[in-house]
């Protein structure tokens, strides 16, 4: 029973490392045997690790980026629809838990690296320690998404009582399932993991799906943003941008042409994929764009016959749901705005981002007369630039914690009637531990509802 319980919690697969020249052998209990440095690199390069979110792209569906009138409140049972309507459970029956199982599967694969690579049969000590550090950072990325769905938003006064998600380091399916740590302890652990990994990480790597020290800095900045620790978020944004390679493409140079593939684009700091799906923009998100002149609409969206817009349907490449340099620049801009450095914040928004998103004769700079107006300007630009990039749900949770999120409405097919809404401070910002996990872990504390 313990073996089955552990597999359900972690969804440990028999991973096929697609980049390896041969199939990796498998232990009888279902854990990969990796021995050489190339075996462990194969795990880090595997498609399943680079695309950690499964088939349903659930990191997009609860956000206010999206409108999907195909969903109905009646007889709603799909994971996408459950997330879209902020139901308590993403899976409302005791079936394999979407997102939870998908992300824990990747953590299990990465645990194969952290458990074994330091004892690899070849390579130098430095090479082994680098791969260990890369796996640690990749795990933190995955845990951050698990927390964003299955734990409350971080708050200084609540993080000592709220629960995070089980932190798993072992590949031994006979080990006991770890308890849910309190959220403060979980954040402390993830931050410490990143800081410990930094000295072992390279300045550059073989491609942008692999980890560098600047990826770790970028993830530190994201974590501190989610904690509303804007001083440290700024510190690590600066460090992430310190490699001299941070780039924002000039979209004016791509009129009538396809943008560079994500895995070769200089805009991408750390690449992680979802399945390449088209999403309909919400009316609220569309209202923030200059639809006639913003090249992000021209290049990344298509207009439907009913007047709505779909994201992703004009581009053949799969958008990055990892970390972009634009996100890091906007982290920095928001932190500067919150510190009252209005001109510095708007300089980033206007001269680093917006000038690259409009034709020269259509560009209009944003202005702000005070700190609050500057914060709003940065947040609006963040909506435009990071739409459908996989970070919005994380942003929504921390902005709601700050009292900055308005109610989010889900409309009917006519666009006139509200089916349901996510109110400020709603319990809907936290999904419940999946029913299947509960069934095999009776003592696991649940999220408050």
Question: Which structural traits does this protein have?
Answer:
single chain, about 450 residues, mainly alpha, Serine Threonine Protein Phosphatase 5, Tetratricopeptide repeat, two-stranded antiparallel ribbon, 16 helices, 7 strands, globular, SusD family protein, TPR-like_helical_dom_sf
Parts with pLDDT < 50 across at least 5 consecutive residues: 1-8, 10-31
N-C termini distance: 29 Å
Report the mean per-residue pLDDT as an integer.
90
Describe the largest sheet.
Answer: 3 strands, antiparallel
Oligomer: single chain
Q: Mind telling me the C-alpha Rg?
A: 22 Å
Question: What is the class of the domain at 1-213 and 430-449 in the CATH system?
Answer: Mainly Alpha
Shape: globular
Keywords: Cell outer membrane, Membrane, Signal
Pfam family, one: SusD_RagB
Protein name: SusD family protein
InterPro entries: SusD-like_N, SusD_RagB_dom, TPR-like_helical_dom_sf
Ordered list of secondary-structure elements with their pairings:
Layout (H helix, E strand, L loop, with lengths): L1 H9 L26 H9 L1 H4 L28 H6 L15 H17 L8 H26 L32 H15 L15 H14 L3 H11 L27 E3 L8 E2 L2 H4 L8 H6 E3 L5 E3 L11 E2 H14 L3 H12 L17 H15 L6 H10 L6 E4 L6 E5 L12 H6 L9
Antiparallel strand pairs: 1-5, 2-4, 3-4, 6-7
Question: Would you write up a description of this structure?
Answer:
The protein is mostly helical and 449 residues long. It has a domain at 1-213 and 430-449: Serine Threonine Protein Phosphatase 5, Tetratricopeptide repeat (Alpha Horseshoe), CATH 1.25.40. The protein is built from 16 helices and seven strands. A three-stranded antiparallel β-sheet has the order 2-4-3. It is found in: Cell outer membrane. Belongs to the SusD family. Residues 323-400 form the RagB/SusD domain.
């Amino acid at each position: 029973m313990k073996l089955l319980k552990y597999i359900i919690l972690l969804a440990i697969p028999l991973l096929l490392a697609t980049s390896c020249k041969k199939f990796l052998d498998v232990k009888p209990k279902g854990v990969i045997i990796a021995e050489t440095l190339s075996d462990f690199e194969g795990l880090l390069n595997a498609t399943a690790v680079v695309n950690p979110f499964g088939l349903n792209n659930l990191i997009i569906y609860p956000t206010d980026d999206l409108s999907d009138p195909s969903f109905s409140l009646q007889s709603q049972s799909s994971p996408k629809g459950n997330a879209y309507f902020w139901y308590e459970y993403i899976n409302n029956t005791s079936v394999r838990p979407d997102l939870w199982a998908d992300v824990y599967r990747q953590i299990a694969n990465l645990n194969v690296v952290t458990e074994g690579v330091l004892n690899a049969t070849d390579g130098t000590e430095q090479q082994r320690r680098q791969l260990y550090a890369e796996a640690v950072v990749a795990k933190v990325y995955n845990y951050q998404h698990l927390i964003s769905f299955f734990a409350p938003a971080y708050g200084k006064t609540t993080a000592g009582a709220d629960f995070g998600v089980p932190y798993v380091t072992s590949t031994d399916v006979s080990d006991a399932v770890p308890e849910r740590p309190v959220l403060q302890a979980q954040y402390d652990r993830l931050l410490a993991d990143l800081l410990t990994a930094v000295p072992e990480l390279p300045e550059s790597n073989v491609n942008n799906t692999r980890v560098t020290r600047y990826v770790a800095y970028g993830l530190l900045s994201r974590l501190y943003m989610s904690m509303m620790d804007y001083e440290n978020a700024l510190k690590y944004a600066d460090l992430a941008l310190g490699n001299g390679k941070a780039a924002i493409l000039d979209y004016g140079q791509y009129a009538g042409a396809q943008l560079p593939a994500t895995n070769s684009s200089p805009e991408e700091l750390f690449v992680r994929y979802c399945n390449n799906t088209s999403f309909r923009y919400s009316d609220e998100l569309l209202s923030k764009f200059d639809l006639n002149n913003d090249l992000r609409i021209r290049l990344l969206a298509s207009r439907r016959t009913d007047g709505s817009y779909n994201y992703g349907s004009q581009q053949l490449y799969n958008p990055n749901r990892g970390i972009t340099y634009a996100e890091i620049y906007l982290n920095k801009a928001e932190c500067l705005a919150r510190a009252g450095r209005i001109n510095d914040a708007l300089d980033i928004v206007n001269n680093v981002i917006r000038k690259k998103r409009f034709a020269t004769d259509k560009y209009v700079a944003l202005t702000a007369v005070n700190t609050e107006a500057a914060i709003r300007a940065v947040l609006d630009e963040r909506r435009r630039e990071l739409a459908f990039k996989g970070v919005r749900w994380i942003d929504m949770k921390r902005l709601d914690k700050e009292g900055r999120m308005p109610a989010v409405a889900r409309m009917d097919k006519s666009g006139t009637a509200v089916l349901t809404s996510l109110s400020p401070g709603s319990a809907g910002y936290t999904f419940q531990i999946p029913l299947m996990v509960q069934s095999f872990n009776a003592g696991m504390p649940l999220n408050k509802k």
